[in-house]
Amino acid sequence: MDRWAKDFDNWAICDTACFHLFDRTPHAWNKIRSWSKRKPEFEKRAAFALLASVALHDKKAEDEPFVECLPLIEHAATDGRNFVKKAVVWALRGIAARNPMLNSVAREAAQRLVDSTDSTSRWIGKTTLSELNSPASLRRLEVQRRKAGGK
Predict the structure, then answer these.
(1) How many domains does the chain have?
(2) Residue 19 is part of a domain; what is its CATH number?
(3) Would you give the end-to-end CA distance of the chain in angstroms?
(4) What domain range is 48 assigned to?
(5) What gap in Å lies between CA 130 and CA 38, rounded to an integer?
(6) Out of 28-37, 69-78, 113-122, 137-146, which region has the weakest mean confidence (pLDDT)?
(7) Which of 43, 54, 79, 82 has its CA 20 to 30 A from that of 149?
(8) What's the gap between Cα 137 and its chain centre?
(9) What crossing angle do the helices spanning 41-57 and 28-35 adopt, rounded to 10°?
(10) Residue 27: enclosing H or E segment and its boundaries?
(11) What is the value of pTM for the model shown?
(12) pLDDT (tens digit, 9 = 90+) per residue, 104-140?
């Protein structure tokens, strides 16, 4: 996985590997943590593309690992490179889409980003909240709440 990640040179290859292969391995969580600290743009993007992919595909994952990744998201939110910041938004949105509790903590993280003095962090926070407040996202959240018994 590390060798492949070092060869990523565009978002399509990065996202495809993460979305269709890497997120199905037992190493996904470790790679999210380690790649989030990488300097090269597409290696760092891979951390957040992988997090978004795990959020979507791993239906059995507990909430705690996603909560533990929020500081990684907030730290990376200062990276103004286009392909990193878009993957950070994707990961935060993916976490929020899992269930009402994660939606709440993801919204809190997005609000902290909006309140930041860093312009890229503010952009990520505003973009995420805008998407989470879309009619489709709000309907999906309401359906999840009903299924969970109104919690």
Answers:
(1) 1
(2) 1.25.10
(3) 39
(4) 2-147
(5) 28
(6) 137-146
(7) 54
(8) 16
(9) 150
(10) none
(11) 0.94
(12) 999 999 999 999 999 999 999 999 999 999 988 899 8
